[in-house]
Amino acid sequence: MTQKILVLPGDGIGPEITAQASRILAACQARGLDVEVFEGLLGGAAYDAHGEPLPAETLEKAKAARGILLGAVGGPKWDKIEDLAKRPEKGLLGVRKQLGLFGNLRPAITYPQLASASSLKPELVAGLDIMIVRELTGGIYFGQPRGIEERDGERVGFNTYVYSESEIERIGRVAFEMAQKRSKKLCSVDKANVLEVTILWREVMERLAPEYPDVELSHMYVDNAAMQLVRAPKQFDVVVTGNMFGDILSDAAAMLTGSIGMLPSASLNESGQGMYEPCHGSAPDIAGQGIANPLATILSVAMMLRYSLDAPAMAKRIEDAVGKVLDDGLRTADIAAEGTRTVSTAEMGDAVLAAFEAL
Ligand SMILES: NC(=O)C1=CN([C@@H]2O[C@H](COP(=O)(O)OP(=O)(O)OC[C@H]3O[C@@H](n4cnc5c(N)ncnc54)[C@H](O)[C@@H]3O)[C@@H](O)[C@H]2O)C=CC1
Ligand SMILES: CC(C)CC(=O)C(=O)O
Ligand SMILES: [Mg+2]
Fold this sequence. Notes:
The chain is α/β, with parallel strands linked by helices. It is built from twelve helices and 14 strands. It folds into two domains: 1-102 and 269-359, 3-Layer(aba) Sandwich (Isopropylmalate Dehydrogenase), CATH 3.40.718; 106-264, Isopropylmalate Dehydrogenase, CATH 3.40.718.
């Protein structure tokens, strides 16, 4: 059956990087991937056209799609919008929530060719392969009540950090199953020395553990986890954590791989429908210059093939093509090093496409 794929370029560098990833998707189509690709507006681009960051039409298209490829949303153009519900980022959170995309997989893999581009010494990251499993539709990004209000003659801002047992259990199961398929080590990251919500988080993870006797479960406070990630990252295999901690830790983990431009992601619901996007944002500081790294977005297409379209061989072909291009010494500016050739976003797309075809 033909599957629908929605591409949401978004804002800033979003259109530049999705353009390259879409070429790879088209090459997969030409090789027999049975998909129909269509586009939509999300974020600032949607706000400018329709006055809403998530127009009803986009939501309908998203619901009908098996896979969604997103660039990124947001930027200074929309930062002055005071109503948060109208901000580009709210459009993204809306898709995640409305489609129930609670399971966010963020693999931090250091390609051997980029070990020297990492912020850490090459020996600390060589062979690094961490899977961060982040809860994506709950926690403090969604908790109610929230707001800014007058209290005792001054304004007070507040958000609510809330998780139900069922939400914790659901993401816990994703992480335990992931650990079973990998090295059978799972580290749950929380702040259970301070936050009740994460005392519950830890308790639920412990309760699940006997159902996965082959998985070794450990716990770590988030502040220590941030430190350990940059001290000795290879101690981790699968990491499970809540929405905000996962957001922050995955950006930190990105620098172990050489650049935030290298980290893809999958956001999945229970039926395997997924949104696929690079972990980075819309990078307004480099938008329009043709220098953004498209590899995280291209690798997100590979994740779509693996997790939503049941096409693992084609996914591997994309990942191998990326490896080949790095072997050939091609680098966008963010991962450039001595002895490599710095290329533009489009040239990187050309090279991955050529390698994909030649494999
Ligand atoms: N999923 C999404 O749509 C996300 C959207 N955002 C939004 O993006 C906007 C910018 O946010 P920032 O905090 O600046 O984070 P950012 O991730 O957009 O940029 C941080 C730094 O990384 C660099 N960078 C990011 N992606 C890159 C790539 N592919 N190639 C080379 N360099 C890259 C940027 O140039 C910048 O110096 C904000 O409006 C924010 O809300 C932020 C994170 C995720
Ligand atoms: C709108 C933000 C929560 C997006 C973000 O930073 C992310 O998902 O990594
Ligand atoms: Mg983030």
